[in-house]
Design a protein that fits this description.
By secondary structure, the chain is mostly helical. It contains ten helices and two strands. The longest helix has 29 residues.
């Protein structure tokens, strides 16, 4: 009993360290604002810019939220096919949830596997992730690192939106958790207080996948996607191994987190890189003009 708390603290430490070091490494070298898009030919005295402050403007945060919430109204054929694929895959997994659970339960229970899986649990725990990215955002603000502030804000926005979606689904469907042994098709309907009926989808999966989605949208690197996806897979395994969720719970939660995080990160990135520059030019001697340049 005395070893349980130290073990949990070690697992929490490793989970926080993995995310914190990854975020700091990915945002290294971003402390100074990008000067490449500034109008060098302008004779006006450049005003002092604080781009890291722009990332926390309420108007910008509201723009992210409204863009994500109104996404269904902008869906095209590709988006519809992806959504159909996610829902169809969730349905297929639901038909196989009992078989998958049986296979996972055949994995030997030992302390080594439990300790590794516990790291996955804390990677998906909002009680760790939210304070961690509040702290990273504050740190980015103090060192004037625009990308670190932006990523932190994007992740917190994603956690709020995707988390709200998952909670609505959990409460409204009332799906029984696997450990109750009442079957994967036990949906009792609205359940507001009993956690035993809040299985669908997985909140831990949506938490870590929110981070993964933002990183995928920010960097677009296959190596970062693979590394972040490995952490997400560890959380997914732990939720099944601990008999807390069905495979379909984890899959849908992951899809919601990734889609929301990716959408928010890409939206901010596109808004930041799409600019119109107005440059004074001389068309003929003593005949001034204006040049419009759209950078995307």
């Amino acid at each position: 009993m005395n070893n349980i708390l130290p073990r949990q603290l070690i697992n929490i430490f490793f989970a926080a360290l993995i995310i914190l070091l990854s975020t700091i490494h990915l945002t290294a070298g971003e402390s100074l604002p990008d000067k490449s898009l500034q109008d060098k030919s302008s004779s006006e005295k450049p005003r002092e810019e604080k781009p890291y402050l722009e990332e926390i403007r309420p108007a910008k945060i509201w723009d992210d939220i409204s863009h994500t919430v109104t996404f269904p109204a902008r869906m095209d054929l590709t988006d519809g096919l992806i959504l159909a694929g996610v829902l169809g895959s969730t349905g297929i997994l639901m038909s196989q949830d009992e078989n998958i659970r049986g296979q996972v339960k055949e994995i030997p229970i030992n302390e080594g596997i439990k300790d590794i899986a516990s790291v996955g649990k804390w990677l998906g725990d909002g009680r760790l992730i939210v304070p961690l990215f509040l702290a990273s955002g504050a740190g980015g603000y103090l060192v004037k690192n625009q990308r670190l502030v932006r990523i932190s804000v994007e992740i917190l926005e994603t956690l709020a939106l995707a988390g709200l979606t998952v909670q609505i689904l959990k409460v409204s469907t009332g799906r029984s958790r696997p450990y109750r042994n009442s079957g994967s098709w036990d949906f009792t309907g609205p359940s507001f207080s009993d956690e035993a009926f809040h299985s669908f989808p997985s909140g831990h999966a949506v938490t870590i996948s929110s981070v993964v989605g933002v990183l995928a949208g920010e960097f677009g690197s296959i190596w970062i996607d693979l590394a972040a996806g490995s952490l997400m897979a560890l959380t997914a395994f732990q939720r099944n191994y601990a008999d807390q969720h069905w495979a379909s719970d984890v899959f849908l939660g992951s899809a919601i987190g990734i889609a929301t995080g990716y959408s928010i990160a890409r939206h901010r990135k596109e808004k930041a890189t799409s600019r119109i520059l107005i440059t004074p030019v001389t068309l003929r001697p003593s005949q001034p003009g204006i040049q419009f340049t759209y950078i995307f």
